[in-house]
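Example record

One chain of 483 residues, shown exactly as stored in the release files.
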Amino acid sequence: MTAPFSAFMDEAAALLGPRGLTRDADLLAPWLTDWRGRFTGAALALASPTSTAEVAALVRLCRAHGVGIVPQGGNSGMSGGATPDGSGTALLLSLRRMNAIRAIDPAARQATCEAGVVLQVLHQAAEAQGLRFPLTLGGKGSATVGGLVSTNAGGTQVLRHGSMRALVMGLEAVLPDGTIYSALTPLKKDNRGFDLKQLFIGSEGTLGIVTAATLRLVPQVAERVVIWAGVPSITAARALLLHCEAVAGDALEGFEVLPQSCLEAVLGHVPNARAPLEGQHAWHVLIEVVADAAGAATLRERAEAMIAAAFEAGLVSDATLAASEAQTEAMWLIRESVAPAERAKGPAMQHDISVPVERMPAFLDMAVPTIEAEFPGTHAVGFGHLGDGNIHFHVIAPPGAVRAEWEAHEGKAISRRVHDLVSEWHGSISAEHGIGQLKRDELERLGDPAALALMRAVKAALDPGELLNPGKLVALAPSPAKP
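Predicted C-alpha coordinates for this chain:
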Protein backbone atom coordinates (compact mmCIF):
# COMPACT_ATOMS: atom_id res chain seq x y z
CA MET A 1 0.00 0.00 0.00
CA THR A 2 1.32 3.43 -0.91
CA ALA A 3 2.07 5.92 1.85
CA PRO A 4 -0.95 8.19 1.15
CA PHE A 5 -3.32 5.23 1.45
CA SER A 6 -1.54 4.01 4.58
CA ALA A 7 -2.16 7.36 6.24
CA PHE A 8 -5.78 7.31 5.13
CA MET A 9 -6.28 3.79 6.46
CA ASP A 10 -4.81 4.68 9.82
CA GLU A 11 -7.12 7.67 10.17
CA ALA A 12 -10.16 5.71 8.96
CA ALA A 13 -9.43 2.92 11.42
CA ALA A 14 -9.16 5.42 14.27
CA LEU A 15 -12.47 6.99 13.23
CA LEU A 16 -14.52 3.82 12.74
CA GLY A 17 -12.91 1.31 15.09
CA PRO A 18 -12.21 -2.39 14.41
CA ARG A 19 -15.84 -3.27 13.61
CA GLY A 20 -16.24 -0.26 11.37
CA LEU A 21 -13.34 -0.89 8.99
CA THR A 22 -12.05 -4.15 7.60
CA ARG A 23 -9.53 -5.24 4.98
CA ASP A 24 -10.16 -8.95 5.58
CA ALA A 25 -10.33 -10.48 2.10
CA ASP A 26 -12.92 -13.08 3.10
CA LEU A 27 -15.24 -10.44 4.55
CA LEU A 28 -14.77 -8.16 1.56
CA ALA A 29 -15.22 -10.78 -1.16
CA PRO A 30 -19.05 -11.11 -1.11
CA TRP A 31 -19.45 -7.36 -1.62
CA LEU A 32 -16.99 -6.98 -4.50
CA THR A 33 -19.15 -8.79 -7.08
CA ASP A 34 -22.58 -7.62 -8.15
CA TRP A 35 -25.70 -9.75 -7.68
CA ARG A 36 -25.76 -10.88 -11.31
CA GLY A 37 -22.08 -11.80 -11.27
CA ARG A 38 -21.25 -9.51 -14.20
CA PHE A 39 -18.90 -7.12 -12.42
CA THR A 40 -16.14 -7.77 -9.90
CA GLY A 41 -13.95 -5.03 -8.47
CA ALA A 42 -11.49 -4.31 -5.69
CA ALA A 43 -11.50 -1.93 -2.75
CA LEU A 44 -9.12 -0.49 -0.18
CA ALA A 45 -11.41 -1.68 2.60
CA LEU A 46 -15.01 -2.04 3.69
CA ALA A 47 -16.26 0.79 5.90
CA SER A 48 -19.33 0.25 8.07
CA PRO A 49 -20.20 3.41 10.03
CA THR A 50 -22.95 3.42 12.64
CA SER A 51 -24.24 6.98 12.42
CA THR A 52 -24.76 9.88 10.05
CA ALA A 53 -22.06 11.80 11.95
CA GLU A 54 -19.57 8.99 11.27
CA VAL A 55 -20.52 8.94 7.58
CA ALA A 56 -19.97 12.69 7.37
CA ALA A 57 -16.59 12.47 9.11
CA LEU A 58 -15.56 9.59 6.84
CA VAL A 59 -16.55 11.53 3.71
CA ARG A 60 -14.49 14.50 4.86
CA LEU A 61 -11.55 12.18 5.44
CA CYS A 62 -11.93 10.60 2.00
CA ARG A 63 -12.09 14.02 0.41
CA ALA A 64 -8.91 15.11 2.16
CA HIS A 65 -7.06 12.05 0.84
CA GLY A 66 -8.72 11.89 -2.58
CA VAL A 67 -10.24 8.45 -1.92
CA GLY A 68 -13.36 7.53 -3.89
CA ILE A 69 -16.39 6.10 -2.13
CA VAL A 70 -18.68 3.38 -3.47
CA PRO A 71 -21.89 3.29 -1.37
CA GLN A 72 -23.61 -0.07 -1.13
CA GLY A 73 -26.96 -1.21 0.24
CA GLY A 74 -27.98 -4.85 0.02
CA ASN A 75 -25.85 -5.47 -3.09
CA SER A 76 -28.97 -6.63 -4.91
CA GLY A 77 -28.82 -4.10 -7.76
CA MET A 78 -29.07 -5.18 -11.38
CA SER A 79 -26.71 -2.71 -13.11
CA GLY A 80 -23.43 -2.93 -11.22
CA GLY A 81 -24.09 0.41 -9.55
CA ALA A 82 -22.70 -0.66 -6.16
CA THR A 83 -19.58 -2.49 -7.36
CA PRO A 84 -16.18 -0.75 -7.32
CA ASP A 85 -13.84 -0.80 -10.31
CA GLY A 86 -10.75 -2.98 -10.41
CA SER A 87 -8.23 -0.35 -9.35
CA GLY A 88 -8.61 -1.03 -5.64
CA THR A 89 -8.27 2.67 -4.84
CA ALA A 90 -11.85 3.30 -3.66
CA LEU A 91 -13.49 2.62 -0.31
CA LEU A 92 -16.55 0.39 -0.23
CA LEU A 93 -19.12 1.98 2.09
CA SER A 94 -21.78 -0.20 3.67
CA LEU A 95 -24.62 1.35 5.66
CA ARG A 96 -25.96 -2.00 6.86
CA ARG A 97 -25.03 -1.21 10.50
CA MET A 98 -27.22 1.90 10.30
CA ASN A 99 -30.37 -0.16 10.55
CA ALA A 100 -32.59 1.65 13.05
CA ILE A 101 -36.21 2.46 12.42
CA ARG A 102 -36.07 5.80 14.19
CA ALA A 103 -39.82 6.32 14.40
CA ILE A 104 -43.15 5.10 13.10
CA ASP A 105 -46.02 7.57 13.39
CA PRO A 106 -49.31 5.70 12.81
CA ALA A 107 -51.35 8.89 12.88
CA ALA A 108 -49.23 10.58 10.23
CA ARG A 109 -48.67 7.26 8.39
CA GLN A 110 -44.93 7.81 8.24
CA ALA A 111 -41.82 5.82 9.07
CA THR A 112 -38.37 7.33 9.50
CA CYS A 113 -35.70 4.73 8.77
CA GLU A 114 -31.94 4.66 8.52
CA ALA A 115 -30.45 3.63 5.21
CA GLY A 116 -29.47 0.13 6.31
CA VAL A 117 -33.00 -0.99 7.21
CA VAL A 118 -33.89 -4.06 5.15
CA LEU A 119 -37.16 -3.77 3.22
CA GLN A 120 -38.66 -6.89 4.78
CA VAL A 121 -37.92 -5.55 8.26
CA LEU A 122 -39.70 -2.31 7.36
CA HIS A 123 -42.68 -4.30 6.12
CA GLN A 124 -42.89 -6.17 9.43
CA ALA A 125 -42.55 -3.01 11.52
CA ALA A 126 -45.30 -1.26 9.57
CA GLU A 127 -47.59 -4.28 9.82
CA ALA A 128 -47.16 -4.29 13.60
CA GLN A 129 -48.74 -0.81 13.55
CA GLY A 130 -51.61 -1.85 11.28
CA LEU A 131 -49.96 -0.17 8.27
CA ARG A 132 -47.78 -1.15 5.33
CA PHE A 133 -45.04 0.24 3.16
CA PRO A 134 -46.46 -0.21 -0.35
CA LEU A 135 -43.36 -1.27 -2.24
CA THR A 136 -42.20 -4.83 -2.57
CA LEU A 137 -39.84 -6.76 -4.82
CA GLY A 138 -38.14 -10.12 -5.06
CA GLY A 139 -35.07 -8.96 -3.11
CA LYS A 140 -37.01 -7.66 -0.11
CA GLY A 141 -34.92 -9.80 2.24
CA SER A 142 -31.70 -8.00 1.29
CA ALA A 143 -32.62 -4.68 -0.35
CA THR A 144 -32.13 -1.71 1.98
CA VAL A 145 -33.93 1.60 2.28
CA GLY A 146 -30.83 3.53 1.17
CA GLY A 147 -30.44 1.40 -1.92
CA LEU A 148 -34.13 1.65 -2.75
CA VAL A 149 -33.99 5.44 -2.51
CA SER A 150 -30.75 5.74 -4.46
CA THR A 151 -32.06 3.66 -7.35
CA ASN A 152 -35.67 4.93 -7.24
CA ALA A 153 -36.82 1.33 -6.93
CA GLY A 154 -40.20 0.23 -8.20
CA GLY A 155 -41.84 -3.19 -7.98
CA THR A 156 -45.24 -4.73 -8.48
CA GLN A 157 -47.23 -2.02 -6.67
CA VAL A 158 -46.05 0.97 -8.71
CA LEU A 159 -49.33 0.96 -10.63
CA ARG A 160 -51.16 2.24 -7.56
CA HIS A 161 -48.53 3.72 -5.25
CA GLY A 162 -45.68 4.84 -7.50
CA SER A 163 -41.94 4.26 -7.20
CA MET A 164 -39.70 5.51 -4.39
CA ARG A 165 -39.96 9.07 -5.73
CA ALA A 166 -43.62 9.03 -4.67
CA LEU A 167 -42.99 7.32 -1.33
CA VAL A 168 -40.09 9.38 0.04
CA MET A 169 -41.46 12.27 2.11
CA GLY A 170 -38.20 13.43 3.68
CA LEU A 171 -34.51 12.70 3.35
CA GLU A 172 -31.18 12.88 5.11
CA ALA A 173 -27.95 12.63 3.12
CA VAL A 174 -24.25 13.35 3.40
CA LEU A 175 -22.92 15.53 0.59
CA PRO A 176 -19.53 15.04 -1.09
CA ASP A 177 -17.92 17.70 1.13
CA GLY A 178 -19.15 16.02 4.32
CA THR A 179 -22.05 18.41 4.88
CA ILE A 180 -25.23 16.81 6.21
CA TYR A 181 -28.39 17.67 4.28
CA SER A 182 -31.27 17.10 6.72
CA ALA A 183 -34.86 17.34 5.52
CA LEU A 184 -36.58 14.42 7.23
CA THR A 185 -39.64 16.35 8.38
CA PRO A 186 -42.18 16.27 5.55
CA LEU A 187 -44.43 19.17 4.67
CA LYS A 188 -47.54 18.77 2.59
CA LYS A 189 -46.83 22.12 0.94
CA ASP A 190 -43.41 23.72 0.68
CA ASN A 191 -42.52 26.24 -2.01
CA ARG A 192 -39.04 27.24 -0.86
CA GLY A 193 -37.44 26.61 -4.22
CA PHE A 194 -36.18 23.27 -5.55
CA ASP A 195 -37.40 19.97 -4.13
CA LEU A 196 -33.84 19.04 -3.23
CA LYS A 197 -34.55 15.55 -1.94
CA GLN A 198 -35.45 14.52 -5.48
CA LEU A 199 -31.83 15.15 -6.51
CA PHE A 200 -30.74 12.17 -4.45
CA ILE A 201 -33.58 9.80 -5.32
CA GLY A 202 -32.42 7.78 -8.30
CA SER A 203 -28.95 9.37 -8.42
CA GLU A 204 -27.30 6.04 -7.50
CA GLY A 205 -25.08 7.53 -4.80
CA THR A 206 -23.32 9.89 -7.18
CA LEU A 207 -24.53 13.13 -5.57
CA GLY A 208 -24.83 12.22 -1.89
CA ILE A 209 -24.97 9.29 0.49
CA VAL A 210 -28.52 8.70 1.71
CA THR A 211 -28.40 7.98 5.44
CA ALA A 212 -32.10 8.11 6.37
CA ALA A 213 -35.53 8.68 4.86
CA THR A 214 -39.06 9.44 5.98
CA LEU A 215 -41.38 7.16 4.04
CA ARG A 216 -45.08 7.15 3.34
CA LEU A 217 -47.14 4.33 4.82
CA VAL A 218 -50.66 3.31 3.85
CA PRO A 219 -53.43 1.34 5.58
CA GLN A 220 -52.89 -2.37 5.81
CA VAL A 221 -54.71 -4.51 3.26
CA ALA A 222 -57.70 -6.19 4.88
CA GLU A 223 -58.58 -8.27 1.83
CA ARG A 224 -57.06 -9.01 -1.53
CA VAL A 225 -58.23 -10.98 -4.53
CA VAL A 226 -55.90 -12.29 -7.20
CA ILE A 227 -57.12 -13.22 -10.67
CA TRP A 228 -55.26 -15.19 -13.33
CA ALA A 229 -56.57 -14.59 -16.86
CA GLY A 230 -55.67 -15.89 -20.27
CA VAL A 231 -55.87 -13.48 -23.21
CA PRO A 232 -55.23 -13.93 -26.93
CA SER A 233 -52.73 -11.10 -27.39
CA ILE A 234 -50.77 -8.40 -25.62
CA THR A 235 -53.16 -5.89 -27.20
CA ALA A 236 -56.03 -7.71 -25.48
CA ALA A 237 -54.08 -7.53 -22.22
CA ARG A 238 -53.88 -3.75 -22.59
CA ALA A 239 -57.63 -3.58 -23.21
CA LEU A 240 -58.18 -5.68 -20.08
CA LEU A 241 -56.00 -3.27 -18.10
CA LEU A 242 -58.14 -0.32 -19.18
CA HIS A 243 -61.27 -2.24 -18.23
CA CYS A 244 -59.90 -3.09 -14.78
CA GLU A 245 -58.78 0.49 -14.18
CA ALA A 246 -62.24 1.76 -15.07
CA VAL A 247 -64.07 -0.77 -12.89
CA ALA A 248 -61.73 -1.22 -9.91
CA GLY A 249 -60.18 2.26 -9.68
CA ASP A 250 -57.77 2.57 -6.76
CA ALA A 251 -58.46 -1.03 -5.73
CA LEU A 252 -56.32 -2.22 -8.67
CA GLU A 253 -52.85 -2.73 -7.22
CA GLY A 254 -51.12 -5.13 -9.59
CA PHE A 255 -51.33 -5.97 -13.29
CA GLU A 256 -48.57 -8.27 -14.57
CA VAL A 257 -48.27 -10.00 -17.95
CA LEU A 258 -46.27 -12.95 -19.27
CA PRO A 259 -46.43 -14.95 -22.50
CA GLN A 260 -47.13 -18.69 -22.65
CA SER A 261 -43.43 -19.48 -23.14
CA CYS A 262 -42.57 -17.81 -19.81
CA LEU A 263 -45.25 -19.83 -18.01
CA GLU A 264 -43.88 -23.03 -19.51
CA ALA A 265 -40.36 -22.07 -18.41
CA VAL A 266 -41.57 -21.60 -14.83
CA LEU A 267 -43.51 -24.88 -14.83
CA GLY A 268 -40.34 -26.66 -15.89
CA HIS A 269 -38.20 -24.86 -13.34
CA VAL A 270 -40.23 -24.66 -10.12
CA PRO A 271 -41.02 -28.01 -8.45
CA ASN A 272 -44.73 -28.76 -8.11
CA ALA A 273 -45.76 -25.57 -9.95
CA ARG A 274 -49.09 -25.87 -11.74
CA ALA A 275 -50.65 -23.81 -14.50
CA PRO A 276 -53.56 -21.76 -13.11
CA LEU A 277 -55.67 -22.34 -16.26
CA GLU A 278 -56.44 -25.27 -18.50
CA GLY A 279 -55.03 -25.16 -22.00
CA GLN A 280 -52.65 -22.66 -23.53
CA HIS A 281 -53.08 -18.93 -23.97
CA ALA A 282 -50.88 -16.57 -25.94
CA TRP A 283 -50.60 -14.26 -22.91
CA HIS A 284 -51.35 -14.58 -19.22
CA VAL A 285 -52.35 -11.75 -16.88
CA LEU A 286 -52.01 -11.63 -13.10
CA ILE A 287 -54.35 -9.08 -11.53
CA GLU A 288 -54.52 -8.08 -7.87
CA VAL A 289 -57.23 -5.95 -6.31
CA VAL A 290 -57.16 -4.94 -2.65
CA ALA A 291 -59.33 -3.28 -0.04
CA ASP A 292 -58.93 -1.84 3.43
CA ALA A 293 -61.31 -2.74 6.24
CA ALA A 294 -64.11 -0.58 4.88
CA GLY A 295 -64.25 -2.37 1.53
CA ALA A 296 -63.10 -5.85 2.48
CA ALA A 297 -66.53 -7.48 2.74
CA THR A 298 -67.51 -6.72 -0.87
CA LEU A 299 -64.12 -6.98 -2.61
CA ARG A 300 -64.50 -10.52 -3.92
CA GLU A 301 -67.97 -9.79 -5.22
CA ARG A 302 -66.66 -6.70 -7.02
CA ALA A 303 -63.72 -8.65 -8.45
CA GLU A 304 -66.04 -11.37 -9.76
CA ALA A 305 -68.25 -8.74 -11.38
CA MET A 306 -65.22 -7.08 -12.95
CA ILE A 307 -63.94 -10.26 -14.57
CA ALA A 308 -67.47 -11.32 -15.60
CA ALA A 309 -67.84 -8.04 -17.46
CA ALA A 310 -64.47 -8.69 -19.11
CA PHE A 311 -65.75 -12.06 -20.34
CA GLU A 312 -68.88 -10.44 -21.73
CA ALA A 313 -66.77 -7.86 -23.55
CA GLY A 314 -64.61 -10.59 -25.08
CA LEU A 315 -61.47 -9.36 -23.31
CA VAL A 316 -60.46 -12.70 -21.76
CA SER A 317 -60.46 -16.30 -22.96
CA ASP A 318 -60.43 -17.85 -19.50
CA ALA A 319 -59.88 -16.73 -15.92
CA THR A 320 -59.83 -17.97 -12.34
CA LEU A 321 -59.88 -16.28 -8.95
CA ALA A 322 -57.56 -17.57 -6.24
CA ALA A 323 -59.71 -19.40 -3.68
CA SER A 324 -57.23 -19.19 -0.82
CA GLU A 325 -54.11 -17.39 0.34
CA ALA A 326 -52.10 -20.47 -0.71
CA GLN A 327 -53.43 -20.17 -4.26
CA THR A 328 -52.73 -16.44 -4.22
CA GLU A 329 -49.11 -17.04 -3.22
CA ALA A 330 -48.77 -19.81 -5.82
CA MET A 331 -49.89 -17.42 -8.57
CA TRP A 332 -47.46 -14.74 -7.45
CA LEU A 333 -44.68 -17.33 -7.21
CA ILE A 334 -45.14 -18.05 -10.91
CA ARG A 335 -44.72 -14.38 -11.74
CA GLU A 336 -41.70 -13.96 -9.44
CA SER A 337 -40.04 -17.07 -10.87
CA VAL A 338 -40.05 -15.96 -14.51
CA ALA A 339 -36.59 -14.34 -14.42
CA PRO A 340 -34.79 -17.27 -12.70
CA ALA A 341 -36.63 -19.75 -14.92
CA GLU A 342 -35.51 -17.90 -18.05
CA ARG A 343 -31.94 -17.69 -16.73
CA ALA A 344 -31.93 -21.45 -16.17
CA LYS A 345 -32.58 -21.98 -19.87
CA GLY A 346 -29.19 -20.53 -20.75
CA PRO A 347 -27.44 -17.22 -21.48
CA ALA A 348 -29.72 -14.24 -22.05
CA MET A 349 -29.49 -10.50 -22.42
CA GLN A 350 -31.92 -8.94 -19.96
CA HIS A 351 -33.33 -5.49 -20.62
CA ASP A 352 -35.29 -3.35 -18.18
CA ILE A 353 -37.17 -1.05 -20.53
CA SER A 354 -40.20 1.18 -20.73
CA VAL A 355 -42.15 2.93 -23.45
CA PRO A 356 -45.35 4.96 -23.11
CA VAL A 357 -47.89 2.62 -21.50
CA GLU A 358 -50.34 2.81 -24.37
CA ARG A 359 -47.62 1.87 -26.89
CA MET A 360 -46.20 -1.19 -25.13
CA PRO A 361 -48.38 -3.78 -26.95
CA ALA A 362 -47.39 -2.41 -30.35
CA PHE A 363 -43.76 -2.22 -29.27
CA LEU A 364 -43.66 -5.87 -28.22
CA ASP A 365 -45.45 -7.00 -31.38
CA MET A 366 -42.72 -5.20 -33.34
CA ALA A 367 -39.64 -5.87 -31.21
CA VAL A 368 -39.97 -9.62 -30.64
CA PRO A 369 -40.00 -10.66 -34.33
CA THR A 370 -37.48 -7.95 -35.23
CA ILE A 371 -34.87 -9.19 -32.77
CA GLU A 372 -35.49 -12.86 -33.54
CA ALA A 373 -35.13 -12.19 -37.28
CA GLU A 374 -31.98 -10.09 -36.95
CA PHE A 375 -30.33 -12.55 -34.54
CA PRO A 376 -31.28 -16.04 -35.78
CA GLY A 377 -31.69 -18.73 -33.16
CA THR A 378 -32.52 -16.33 -30.34
CA HIS A 379 -35.83 -16.28 -28.50
CA ALA A 380 -37.20 -12.95 -27.27
CA VAL A 381 -39.76 -12.59 -24.50
CA GLY A 382 -41.32 -9.65 -22.70
CA PHE A 383 -42.98 -9.84 -19.30
CA GLY A 384 -43.67 -7.63 -16.34
CA HIS A 385 -45.52 -4.52 -15.25
CA LEU A 386 -47.74 -3.65 -18.18
CA GLY A 387 -49.70 -1.22 -16.05
CA ASP A 388 -46.77 1.20 -15.79
CA GLY A 389 -45.22 0.53 -19.20
CA ASN A 390 -42.22 -1.36 -17.78
CA ILE A 391 -41.43 -4.66 -19.46
CA HIS A 392 -38.47 -6.94 -18.84
CA PHE A 393 -37.34 -7.83 -22.35
CA HIS A 394 -35.12 -10.91 -22.37
CA VAL A 395 -33.34 -12.26 -25.43
CA ILE A 396 -32.29 -15.87 -24.88
CA ALA A 397 -29.23 -17.21 -26.68
CA PRO A 398 -29.39 -19.99 -29.25
CA PRO A 399 -28.92 -23.52 -27.85
CA GLY A 400 -25.29 -24.36 -27.17
CA ALA A 401 -24.09 -20.77 -26.83
CA VAL A 402 -21.13 -20.26 -24.51
CA ARG A 403 -22.23 -17.67 -21.97
CA ALA A 404 -19.21 -15.35 -21.69
CA GLU A 405 -18.38 -15.47 -25.39
CA TRP A 406 -21.99 -14.97 -26.52
CA GLU A 407 -22.68 -12.14 -24.09
CA ALA A 408 -19.50 -10.28 -25.07
CA HIS A 409 -20.19 -10.41 -28.79
CA GLU A 410 -23.68 -11.15 -30.12
CA GLY A 411 -25.27 -10.35 -26.75
CA LYS A 412 -23.75 -6.89 -26.72
CA ALA A 413 -25.00 -6.25 -30.26
CA ILE A 414 -28.47 -7.42 -29.24
CA SER A 415 -28.62 -5.01 -26.31
CA ARG A 416 -27.49 -2.15 -28.50
CA ARG A 417 -30.24 -2.97 -31.00
CA VAL A 418 -32.91 -3.30 -28.30
CA HIS A 419 -31.90 0.06 -26.86
CA ASP A 420 -32.04 1.62 -30.31
CA LEU A 421 -35.60 0.35 -30.77
CA VAL A 422 -36.64 1.62 -27.35
CA SER A 423 -35.19 5.05 -28.09
CA GLU A 424 -36.97 5.19 -31.44
CA TRP A 425 -40.22 4.59 -29.53
CA HIS A 426 -39.40 7.42 -27.08
CA GLY A 427 -38.84 5.02 -24.20
CA SER A 428 -36.22 4.45 -21.52
CA ILE A 429 -33.36 1.93 -21.50
CA SER A 430 -33.71 1.71 -17.71
CA ALA A 431 -37.19 1.69 -16.24
CA GLU A 432 -36.40 0.59 -12.67
CA HIS A 433 -32.95 -1.01 -12.31
CA GLY A 434 -30.82 2.09 -12.80
CA ILE A 435 -27.85 2.83 -15.05
CA GLY A 436 -24.90 1.89 -12.82
CA GLN A 437 -21.89 0.89 -14.87
CA LEU A 438 -23.81 -1.58 -17.04
CA LYS A 439 -25.61 1.06 -19.12
CA ARG A 440 -23.50 4.17 -18.66
CA ASP A 441 -22.04 4.08 -22.16
CA GLU A 442 -25.47 3.42 -23.64
CA LEU A 443 -26.91 6.38 -21.74
CA GLU A 444 -24.18 8.59 -23.18
CA ARG A 445 -24.84 7.21 -26.66
CA LEU A 446 -28.62 7.56 -26.62
CA GLY A 447 -29.43 10.10 -23.92
CA ASP A 448 -30.78 13.53 -24.71
CA PRO A 449 -27.74 15.88 -24.88
CA ALA A 450 -29.52 18.58 -22.91
CA ALA A 451 -30.46 16.13 -20.14
CA LEU A 452 -26.93 14.71 -19.99
CA ALA A 453 -25.48 18.22 -19.81
CA LEU A 454 -27.79 19.08 -16.92
CA MET A 455 -26.81 15.92 -15.04
CA ARG A 456 -23.12 16.68 -15.54
CA ALA A 457 -23.67 20.23 -14.34
CA VAL A 458 -25.33 19.00 -11.15
CA LYS A 459 -22.58 16.44 -10.61
CA ALA A 460 -19.90 19.09 -11.15
CA ALA A 461 -21.57 21.46 -8.70
CA LEU A 462 -21.93 18.93 -5.91
CA ASP A 463 -19.03 16.54 -6.53
CA PRO A 464 -16.39 18.19 -8.74
CA GLY A 465 -13.75 15.67 -7.63
CA GLU A 466 -15.98 12.71 -8.62
CA LEU A 467 -15.56 11.32 -5.12
CA LEU A 468 -18.93 9.57 -4.88
CA ASN A 469 -19.49 6.34 -6.78
CA PRO A 470 -16.96 7.06 -9.53
CA GLY A 471 -17.65 5.48 -12.90
CA LYS A 472 -21.40 5.15 -12.37
CA LEU A 473 -24.42 6.80 -14.02
CA VAL A 474 -22.73 9.85 -15.52
CA ALA A 475 -19.19 11.20 -15.74
CA LEU A 476 -18.19 14.86 -15.79
CA ALA A 477 -16.55 14.35 -19.16
CA PRO A 478 -18.32 12.14 -21.71
CA SER A 479 -16.55 8.97 -22.80
CA PRO A 480 -15.03 8.90 -26.29
CA ALA A 481 -17.51 7.80 -28.94
CA LYS A 482 -17.52 4.04 -29.52
CA PRO A 483 -18.33 2.35 -32.79
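Notes: The longest strand covers residues 223-231.
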